[in-house]
Design goal:
elongated, about 0% strand, mainly alpha, 2 domains, about 75% helix
Length: about 220
């Protein structure tokens, strides 16, 4: 009879630890969304994750630290990493990259707009709004997500201006205006559960109208 394989004891290896971190973050996000900060507990999150409380407390000293990690790592970091990956793929697409900078800008704005309406993203933003007084430092994390998007927009706006597609008097607020139209405006409506963006068809119509409004205010006449 072949000898039984010995099982390693103690802490998991690096890969196992990273997988457990990700699992704990996903589970914590779900519990916080369902029960809010006050209604969730470390015991509840550990049980839902199928992990020992020791594993959870070894990583996060308390519920406040875990809540912050959900936004810093699970929402903000993931959004930025995803955005960077999408932009790399976008720039590698020779057909798009060689096109009109207005079309490039439109696709970038549409990508950010579509990412916004993933269910968990909206739910986490709603949770953030409700708890921001308790965790004011998390505003910097949310701002970093928006700033990453604004930087890409600014680069394309400058290219369009150099080619004479936009007026030269639009100023430095153009990127901020587009963010307000395609991110902050619809996000506010989604957080309130307004019907104007509650279906894919309505969101498509919203984006098209927002884009037309922006371009009409920017193009050279």
């Amino acid at each position: 009879m072949a000898p039984k394989t010995a099982h390693r004891k103690g802490r998991p290896d690096l890969q196992g630890s990273l997988q457990l971190d990700e699992h704990l973050m996903t589970t914590a996000a779900k519990i916080f969304i369902e029960h809010g900060f006050e209604g969730a507990s470390m015991d509840q999150i550990a049980a839902a994750a199928g992990a020992g409380k020791q594993s959870l407390y070894r990583r996060y000293a308390n519920k406040e630290a875990l809540f912050k990690a959900v936004f810093t790592n699970h929402l903000a970091r993931k959004q930025i990493e995803r955005w960077d990956g999408e932009m790399a793929a976008f720039e590698a697409n020779e057909t798009v990259a060689a096109g009109n900078p207005l079309e490039e800008l439109r696709e970038i704005a549409r990508t950010a707009f579509n990412n916004l309406f993933e269910t968990e993203t909206v739910d986490l933003f709603r949770l953030f709004v409700g708890e921001q007084r308790r965790f004011p430092d998390l505003r910097d994390e949310m701002q970093q997500v928006v700033q990453t998007f604004e930087d890409e927009i600014t680069e394309r706006l400058r290219s369009a201006e150099r080619q004479g597609l936009f007026r030269k008097d639009v100023g430095q607020h153009a990127a901020r205006n587009l963010v307000a139209l395609v991110i902050e405006g619809p996000l506010f409506q989604a957080l309130l559960g307004l019907p104007s963006v509650d279906t894919p068809a309505k969101r498509c119509a919203y984006f098209d109208a927002a884009w037309t409004t922006f371009v009409d205010s920017m193009v050279s006449r």
